[in-house]
Amino acid sequence: MDLLQTMREHLPTLDLRPLPELEAEIHEELEFHLEMRFLDNMAAGMSPDDARRNARQRFGDFEQNRQACRKITLGARIMLSRIQAILLVVLLGAVIHLGMRFYQMQAANERQLKTLTDTIERLQAAQIRSTTPVATIPYRQWDLATDGVGTAKRIGTQEAAAASNVPWDVTDYSPNEPWSN
Amino acid sequence: MKKKKAELLQGTLDMMILQVLTGGPMHGYAIVKRIQQSSHDLLVVEEGSLYPALHRMDRRGLIQHEWGLSEANRRAKYYRLTAAGRRRLKVESERWGRFVDAVAGVMGIAVAEG
């Protein structure tokens, strides 16, 4: 037996017609058999009651055979329907879970954003208070790069003095004095 | 003389269905009648048990079905043999032949020794 045949036997094609239609066909087929046996029995001279009883007796358990046919013919379809239902439930669960996680994260982000905004506002308010001049504080701005001989180079003294509203105290500055001893 | 009915061996029903269908498409009732007539009413087939076998073979691609009108002008499900079914029948027939030869051989020895 080749591989294709083996696969076909174990993975048969699905009849995708509606399940009730397939179930009705199974019932119709079995009923046809009983009807034909009944007619043959009648033709053989049996009474209608005997003909019907004999037909049922020879057929065996109608419901058991119907269920067996149903299981064989529709088993794959029924299993597929169950798998689809399970996957749908899992998918819905995943969507609900992700939705809840998204909502929680969004709420957390909003809380963090609000905290951050409050902090920024507090800092800005504190900065405004701290930049209001309350006393004359000497202000110097130094360029820490040296001029190569160990002395500091002063820059922007005029601008720095203007910004701090404090006159540059030239007496505190010695151009040729070493930066550190 | 009253005939003794013979029980079907497991698995032989499928082979007999395939064999009967080599004669052309048939519905289930006609298949049962043909098996009983061919065996001179010796083989007992519970008629309803034919249908699970037919559906199983149909599902496995050994036979195919289509709906048509019966001799009584009623809608009936007709089965016919597929190429895969013919191949299976050949394999099963050979296997059955070997089985019968083996049993006959054993019975022959038994008779000779008896």
Characterise the protein shown here.
By secondary structure, chain A is mostly helical. Chain A contains five helices and two strands, in the order H-H-H-H-E-E-H. In chain A, a hairpin with a 5-residue loop joins strand 1 and strand 2 (152-154). In chain A, helix 2 runs antiparallel to helix 4 (62-131). The radius of gyration of chain A is 48 Å and the shape is rod-shaped. The model of chain A has no long low-confidence stretch (mean pLDDT 79). In chain B, a hairpin with a 5-residue loop joins strand 2 (63-69) and strand 3. Chain B has a single domain (12-113), classed as Arc Repressor Mutant, subunit A.
Number of alpha- plus pi-helical segments of chain A = 5
CATH architectural arrangement of chain B = Orthogonal Bundle
Q: Indicate the percent of residues in helices of chain A.
A: 55-70%
Average pLDDT metric of chain A = 79
Instruction: Give start-end ranges of low-pLDDT stretches of chain B.
Output: none
Q: How widely separated are the two ends of chain B?
A: 27 Å
Percent strand of chain A: under 5%
Radius of gyration of CA atoms of chain A, rounded to a whole number: 48 Å
**What is the overall number of helices of chain B?**
4
Rg over CA atoms of chain B: 16 Å
Major sheet attributes of chain B? 3 strands, antiparallel
> Which stretches of chain A of 5+ consecutive residues score pLDDT under 50?
none
Number of domains of chain B: 1
Structural class of chain A: mainly alpha
Number of strands of chain B: 3
Oligomer category: heterodimer
The mean pLDDT of chain B is 88
Biggest interface found: A-B, 27 and 26 residues
What's the CATH class of chain B, please?
Answer: Mainly Alpha
